[in-house]
Amino acid sequence: MKSLIRIIKKGNIIIPAGILSLLPFFIQAQDSITLDYCYQQVQKTYPLNRQADLLQQSSDLRTRNLNKNYLPQFNVNGSASWQNEVTEVVIPLPANLPELQGPAIPKDQYKLTLDINESIYDGNVTSYQKKLEKFNLHIDKKNVDASLYLLKDQVNQFYLSILLTQQNITLLQETRKQLDAKLAEVQSAVNNGAMLKMNADLIRAEIIKLEQNIYELSMDRMASIGMLSELISAPLNENSAFKSPVINLPVISYENSRIEFELFNIQRDRISLMKNMVTTKWNPKLWAFGQLGLGIPGYNFLSTDLAPMAMVGARVTWNPWNWNGNKNEKKMYDIQGEIIKNQQESFDKNLRITTRRNMTDITKLTDLLLKDQELVELRAGITKTVSAQLTNGVITSSDYILRVNDETNARMGLEIHKVQLVKAKLSYLYNLGKL
């Protein structure tokens, strides 16, 4: 028999090699697995799913810190210093009188103060920072959602690989049953001297080749089950039957619902916010401040005694001109917005091209399945005819095996196209963000 594995690998479904255990006579279905179950499981159990909560907790902490910008800020400051020269107060008098020397100012000074600063108006900086934090959190969560959505494509690959090998193992087992029955018939004729022993040996050799193909497909199926099980973090029974999904497509039309496309819009809104935030650099800032403490000397630097210190006041700053720095920064954000817009348009353009290919594949495979069904019926009729001819000794086992292989290949081609059609529909929905 010509290699049946080679036919399977001509399709778009790539069958991975070896894991799980051999299925000697295929599936005794104890439970059924659906594609939707795998989707739900991977979204629920994949480690990345927990990241959304962590991002929320981190953002809440940053927002709390931003709220503290409005609270008084306390600083304890202390200093001790010595200087080689201090201010001297000398009062000049008439020549007949000596100069009057003021009190000596100590060259060593000591201060311990509590400084208090509170923002009264920060030019809306904190308000914009809190808005920006919300945008950042939204973007981070959307990135997590986009990464989780990509897992569905991996699920599709493993699931369809399992589905294809599952269906083709069944076909090969049916072919083997057919050859087993024919071998019994031919062996009886050999025993009666009506046929040469070579006819029986040819069928036995073909059965051995079939067993090899079944083993290879079984190992491929086991590998895919093992990888799918690891991906969705759920045990999968090797005797489970994986159901082929029924996909009813709506009227085929282009509508981009991908999370990545939405993410571009959020990023552009974030850039707009950051552009508006530049204005806060022009706004005046107003602080209230106070100071309590002890010093030698205190505010009266002519005193040499330990003295209490207390001061309250307000301070305002305003920078109305920074040599067009703010204007240039706004232009920079405009450019960043255009870059994101171009990336969004490129993403949408590539997606349109991909979905157009998906639509073509769906139409092509739908038409091919009609021809496949017709071909299978013709091959089955030919096999039935040559089976009778072999029984009557008109042809040899070699001719019969060739026709059986033709029928088997036709049936496997039908199954490949069925799975490829499912894959094309899933790819279409996946690419548009509708899975």
Explain what this protein looks like in three dimensions.
The chain has 435 residues and is of the alpha+beta class. The protein has one domain: Outer membrane efflux proteins (OEP) (Up-down Bundle), CATH 1.20.1600. The chain is 59% helix and 13% strand. The chain is built from 8 helices and 8 strands. The strands form 3 sheets. The protein has a 4-stranded antiparallel beta sheet, with no helix packed on it. Strands 1-6 form a two-stranded parallel sheet. It has a two-stranded antiparallel sheet with strand order 3-4. β3 and β4 form a beta hairpin. 20% of the residues are buried. The N terminus is likely disordered.
From N to C, what is the helix and strand string?
HEHHEEEEHHEHEEHH
Strand content: 5-15%
Oligomer: single chain
Second-tier CATH architecture: Up-down Bundle
CATH topology assignment: Outer membrane efflux proteins (OEP)
What count of helical segments does DSSP give?
A: 8
Low-pLDDT runs of 5+ residues are 1-30
